[in-house]
Amino acid sequence: MSWWLPFFCLLGLVGLLLWGLFYSRRQQRQPQMNGISVVLLTRNNAANLEGVVRWLLQYEYRYHWLLQIIIIDQGSWDQTLAIADKLAREHFNLLVVEQKWFPLISPRRLAYLAARYQRVVFLDLRQRQQGKRELQTLLRIFNEQAFGT
């Protein structure tokens, strides 16, 4: 009869430990609701990368919107990575990822893993026409959240 008490105490502690680990991991993986993660897919876009990032940051400062910018570079040989690193040092909410370090993961999956917020918008700077459509979508999302329309 004396072994029941330590057994149930130990079982309760193990259960509490497992529940705590599961609950803390679950809280870390859930993205926040009230922001947007913008993913810039780049390759040799040194000419317009800084302008696009500053344009996005302008919306963040103007409308007090929570914004995370993720730059995924897919093998640039110009100054794209240097510009992205410079911008990442200036702004705490900008993340630079080189695709060559993760060759087996698609860039979109990589972006979803790195995203902090639940809304994720992709801007493909490599394709000009697709980028214009995505910028219009992003502008519509910003306006909906800023003005409630």
UniProtKB/TrEMBL annotation:
Ranges in a coiled coil: none
Keyword Lyase: no
Gene3D superfamilies documented for this protein: Spore Coat Polysaccharide Biosynthesis Protein SpsA, Chain A
Keyword Ribonucleoprotein set for record: no
Membrane-crossing residue ranges in chain numbering: none
InterPro entries: Glyco_trans_2-like, Nucleotide-diphossugar_trans
MF (Gene Ontology): transferase activity
Keywords, alphabetical: Transferase
Residue ranges of every copy of the Glycosyltransferase 2-like domain listed in the record: 37-124
Name the UniProt record assigns to this protein: Glycosyl transferase family 2
Phylogenetic placement of the source organism: Bacteria, Bacillati, Bacillota, Clostridia, Eubacteriales
